[in-house]
């Protein structure tokens, strides 16, 4: 770690991509991750018939037909997309006294990944030099000195380097990392940039079979009464077992107050929409991102979520005399907030940093 030229902070897709690009350019890079795992908002759990299928509790979809950078990285990392299952009718829940079956148009090009988005994380990690990544390394401050940057970790360790890439959601930086002499306007901008999906909770519900498909249902639900506001088929590609996922509509405080009431209400909703076979799921996993201290900021909890837009150029410029760069998905000029944005911001930030002295 002593001879590090560049420190990248945050081992989500953006940080991993930046690290790989910098290593390929011959730089000595340390990747510091505050949690005990890489992936950030990307997470999956194993399950299914033989326990080997992966189910996404973070992102699921990419749109390779419309996302050229995703397409290029999937080819480079040898990851295969497959179509999101959408055949059959959807269920409308809470639009009248009874649930209604109805055809809903699908999304053109919406795809899942073999191995889920975790496959991107694993493939990027596999390409890094061993020893590059340090876990449980939460950065709390950056000190700008005459002879470079000092990166201070929560455990008291300090790492000196020439440049730093903060691949961390911008609001987390503003709230949790003290940066010497950062411009006030940049800090305000970071506070205003919400972290896409950070206050969201996602439920993954596993079944022995995708029984809804036999009844001509796509697994899709649009609900006005919840608790899941949207449900989609999430069965493994070859459907050896069945799975659904849904976005939880209950606000973070309600989810936290009574987790078992939420689970009961989810099962009741699935029975209402898909019949009694839904009453006995093999597993029900709820990932509440609002409780993740390194992802969801205080401001993300206080303010209504906003769909990310392309932010001002200052987010993509060097700071502190080109020593400091930002690289989370929300900083990207293409697909901010999405997986594509994370890939783009990681790669483009590495290139900009390499182009400057
Ligand atoms: C429920 C959900 C569903 C989603 N669905 C989709 C989808 O279908 N399609 C899509 O394209 N996108 C989706 N997204 C968005 C997608 O997950 C993100 O755009 C992407 O994963 C962001 O990657 P990132 O590397 O920019 O940031 P993150 O994944 O947030 O990574 C940041 C990393 O920084 C670390 N960190 C934070 N603070 C510190 C610190 N002080 N010191 C050290 N490390 C720190 C964190 O632990 C984390 O590992 C979804 C997100 C969620 C939560």
Task: Give an overview in words.
By secondary structure, the chain is of the alpha/beta class. It folds into 2 domains: 1-42 and 117-196 and 295-357, FAD/NAD(P)-binding domain (3-Layer(bba) Sandwich); 84-116 and 199-291, Alpha-Beta Complex (Polyamine Oxidase, Chain A, domain 2). Helices cover 27% and strands 25% of the residues. It has helices spanning 13-24, 68-77, 118-126, 170-176, 184-192, 211-214, 252-257, 259-274, 298-302, 339-355; strands at 6-9, 29-32, 44-47, 53-56, 81-83, 89-93, 100-102, 111-113, 133-134, 139-145, 148-153, 158-161, 163-166, 178-179, 201-207, 217-223, 228-233, 242-248, 283-288, 324-326. α1 (13-24) runs parallel beside α3, α1 (13-24) runs parallel beside α10 and α4 (170-176) crosses α5. The two termini are 22 Å apart. The mean pLDDT is 95.
List keywords for this structure.
357 residues, single chain, 20 strands, Polyamine Oxidase, Chain A, domain 2, seven-stranded mixed beta sheet, FAD/NAD(P)-binding domain, binds flavin-adenine dinucleotide, alpha/beta, 10 helices
**Share of residues in helices:** 25-40%
CATH topology of the largest domain: FAD/NAD(P)-binding domain
Structural Rg: 21 Å
Number of helices: 10
Mean pLDDT: 95
Instruction: List how many beta strands DSSP finds.
Output: 20
């Amino acid at each position: 770690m002593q001879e590090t030229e560049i420190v990248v902070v945050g081992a989500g897709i953006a940080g991993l991509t930046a690290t790989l690009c910098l290593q390929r350019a011959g730089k000595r890079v340390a990747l510091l991750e505050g949690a005990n795992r890489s992936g950030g908002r990307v997470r999956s759990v194993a399950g299914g018939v033989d326990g080997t299928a992966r189910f996404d509790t973070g992102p699921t979809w990419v749109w390779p037909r419309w996302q050229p950078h995703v397409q290029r990285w999937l080819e480079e990392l040898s990851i295969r997309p497959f179509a999101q299952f959408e055949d059959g009718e959807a269920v409308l829940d809470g639009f009248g006294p009874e649930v209604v079956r109805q055809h809903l148009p699908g999304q053109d090009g919406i795809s899942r990944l073999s191995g889920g988005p975790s496959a991107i994380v694993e493939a990027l990690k596999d390409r890094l030099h061993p020893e590059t990544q340090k876990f449980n390394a939460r950065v709390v401050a950056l000190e700008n000195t005459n002879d470079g940057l000092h990166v201070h970790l929560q455990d008291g360790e300090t790492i000196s380097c020439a440049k730093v890439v903060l691949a961390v959601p911008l609001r987390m930086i503003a709230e949790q990392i003290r940066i010497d002499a950062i411009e006030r306007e940049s800090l305000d901008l970071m506070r205003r940039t919400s972290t896409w999906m950070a206050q969201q909770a996602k439920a993954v519900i596993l079944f022995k079979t995708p029984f809804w498909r036999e009844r001509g249902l796509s697994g899709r639900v649009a609900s006005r009464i919840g608790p899941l506001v949207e449900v989609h088929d999430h069965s493994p590609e070859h459907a050896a077992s069945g799975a659904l996922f849904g976005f939880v509509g209950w606000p973070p405080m309600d989810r936290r107050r009574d987790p078992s009431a939420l689970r009961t209400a989810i099962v009741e909703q699935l029975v209402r929409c898909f019949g009694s076979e839904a009453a006995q799921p093999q597993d029900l996993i709820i990932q509440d991102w609002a409780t993740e201290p390194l992802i969801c900021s205080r401001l993300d909890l206080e303010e209504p979520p906003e769909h990310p837009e392309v932010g001002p150029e200052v987010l993509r410029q060097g700071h502190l005399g080109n020593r400091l760069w930002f690289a989370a998905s929300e900083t990207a000029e293409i697909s901010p907030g999405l997986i594509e944005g994370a890939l783009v911001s990681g790669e483009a930030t590495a290139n900009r940093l390499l182009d400057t002295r």
